[in-house]
């Protein structure tokens, strides 16, 4: 940590804080540094009953923990927000997400160091309650992606945990699946792991993903954790007002971090352990008859990590196994993501991956997202294999190992994928959007005795039962590497696209429209529109001729559209998982068919939907359709 020179004298707490904290490199939220003078003057003084209770507990527990002192809280006013209102909106399904860096117009910071600190306190309490043990016996690992707010949030989270006596292992750069594996791999087996990431979202966002050896946190676990964090915050009487308290907030946390018992925080170099684990999977999977240790000799495999956490895949997994990884790109972590969004769902990211494969004449390209729980691949002939194609390829691999198994996917998969899985003897269970839903359904089906080995979303989240139901972008990509090498060993060549996916029927056109729900009651408004859409189709309204509601449907309304008048395909109207949006997905097997289908949906909106509740104007651009087949 860099020590900034003190500016001026430091007579009061406020003056000290003003003197001791200044922006670095224009990035204020991650550049706030503590002031030793301020620290010695204020930070060891217990304040308020919550603080005194904590200190008493610490003494009773015999553990020297973070000596935390809240800076002067602003006088309570009737307008001070309820602390819970700072925490609860950070829930994003089964993750925590927020704006962690100021500076983007219209995006107020919501996830700062204070919040992270109290989330650490809350997590300690939650884990202790769940396991029926004292926090002092718990060990938690923390890793992060390269976002610029990561170091501060990690320090704050660690300080919160250690203030309760939890031992913390800081990994530095890590991936989401590696964090989960740190609860599993022998010799590590942390009680919980936290990944600090906001996946593919812009540089100013950040968030937390939580794991225990049972898997990722569910929605209810996150709600409970946020509630506990708010209670911890209240107990310490910490500032909970907005922007002008931010500097004090961060100072508060950083001073506590500096007073954490150093013995409770250790730096652990875990990624080499996880890389060795992946190398073993590939070695065992290929079981090369001649060079077991270097089964990728003679293969050129490149990685595009988009400057996220995935660069290790090239240098620490593929290269040591003998692969030529030259031509890999954007491997160095850079939290500004200067090259492209690290996201295999993103067109630019896939174009970059395709270009790299073509330029370097690689046999395979692997594109991963920031925290590497998702991936896509690029075949040696430059064909992007993401979305339906990736699921199809993973289905092929899975069905070879587990004939007849059920495969769960999200709701927006193509009809051609269902036919492909059927033709391989598998069963396709098309479920809902959201990887947690998809994986959860797989767990449930297995529990009911329905063998379900693969759960995969078009976003690139893919999980296998054989791998702890963990969505791991490197595990999926490893399966593709294994099949490519095995087929080559069988004399079938290195090609994985034309040979394995030749029977996958793809739509001619595919498109997605995201329509904004405008009102405060967007959930109810959305549900009403969906109900009206159902009646409109079911009643055979003019405009919905040849449309049939699909029977096996778990989300929104999916209609299959019969051939005629230049149409054939399907449409799905559903509510977005997280955002105030209705989403329309359309696929057509006929050139120009999507436009026809969208026109029909437009007539539904014109007749049925109130413009004050939904903005359907995007549908009027309905003919800018992405061509799937080239
Ligand atoms: O419902 P949507 O707005 O399309 O978003 C749904 C998507 O949200 C996130 O990105 C999740 O990681 C995905 O698993 C999910 O599918």
Automatic annotation (TrEMBL):
Source organism superkingdom: Eukaryota
- A Pfam match is PGM_PMM_II
Q: Where is the Alpha-D-phosphohexomutase alpha/beta/alpha domain?
A: 94-224, 297-382, 387-487
Q: Needs which cofactor?
A: Mg(2+)
The leader peptide range reads none
Q: Which residues form a coiled coil?
A: none
CDD domains reported for this sequence:
PMM_PGM (cd03089)
Gene3D superfamilies for the chain: Alpha-D-Glucose-1,6-Bisphosphate, subunit A, domain 3 (3.40.120.10)
**Per the record, what are the reactions this protein catalyses?**
alpha-D-glucose 1-phosphate = alpha-D-glucose 6-phosphate; alpha-D-glucose 1,6-bisphosphate + L-seryl-[protein] = O-phospho-L-seryl-[protein] + alpha-D-glucose 6-phosphate; O-phospho-L-seryl-[protein] + alpha-D-glucose 1-phosphate = alpha-D-glucose 1,6-bisphosphate + L-seryl-[protein]
Q: What InterPro entries is this protein classified in?
A: A-D-PHexomutase_a/b/a-I, A-D-PHexomutase_a/b/a-I/II/III, A-D-PHexomutase_a/b/a-II, A-D-PHexomutase_a/b/a-III, Alpha-D-phosphohexomutase_SF, Phosphoglucosamine_mutase
Keyword annotations for this protein? Answer: Carbohydrate metabolism, Glucose metabolism, Phosphoprotein
Q: So what EC number does this one have?
A: 5.4.2.2
Q: Which PANTHER family match?
A: PHOSPHOGLUCOMUTASE (ALPHA-D-GLUCOSE-1,6-BISPHOSPHATE-DEPENDENT), PHOSPHOHEXOSE MUTASE
- Tell me its family: Belongs to the phosphohexose mutase family.
What is the protein's given name?
Answer: phosphoglucomutase (alpha-D-glucose-1,6-bisphosphate-dependent)
What organism is this sequence from? Answer: Coccomyxa viridis
